[in-house]
Amino acid sequence: xxxxxxxxxxxxxxxxxxxxxxxxxxxxxxxxxxxxxxxxxxxxxxxxxxxxxxxxxxxxxxxxxxxxxxxxxxxxxxxxxxxxxxxxxxxxxxxxxxxxxxxxxxxxxxxxxxxxxxxxxxxxxxxxxxxxxxxxxxxxxxxxxxxxxxxxxxxxxxxxxxxxxxxxxxxxxxxxxxxxxxxxxxxxxxxxxxxxxxxxxxxxxxxxxxxxxxxxxxx
Length: 219
Fold this sequence. Notes:
By secondary structure, the chain is of the alpha/beta class. Helix content is 35%, strand content 24%. Strands 3-2-1-4-5-9-8 form a seven-stranded mixed β-sheet, sandwiched between helices. A two-stranded antiparallel sheet has the order 6-7.
């Protein structure tokens, strides 16, 4: 296993319980994120509905929110500790351990896919692999929603939630950079939204989808 993968897994195993406590209820104070998730749910339904993967789901709060919006949502996370917390807090939902660079899902098996601030620890060199996996498992026309920190460069996070030691690199990226990689992976980029652009940690929400069945890529 690459060091970044092992470091990310062990770091989030360590902070899982404190992280879940910290972000519990965070969506209640995030109207733009809730609106984006609501739009994502609408796009899934318009595309025919079906299973939706929350990749990098952490403690499962977004998976549960999507479930509350009527989606058949399940979560995948690299950290067994995070998955254990997600199963504890949301016992009626499905959560599995896995990595976005090698998803244990059949081709074309999900109707929608979400990666909500879970790409931030992925090295640049691994991004095309992850986006290729997203493209592989999504049904034709199924919506993809990415959320990530906006900016340039990266930093090492050595201490995390609850004061626990961590060893992860946090990457910031420009929306146009991620959009270009999505197009290279075979997606059509449909929209993006900047959140808190004047704040210390602006974010981006980027909507895309693979071509619909029988379509060469433009729709």
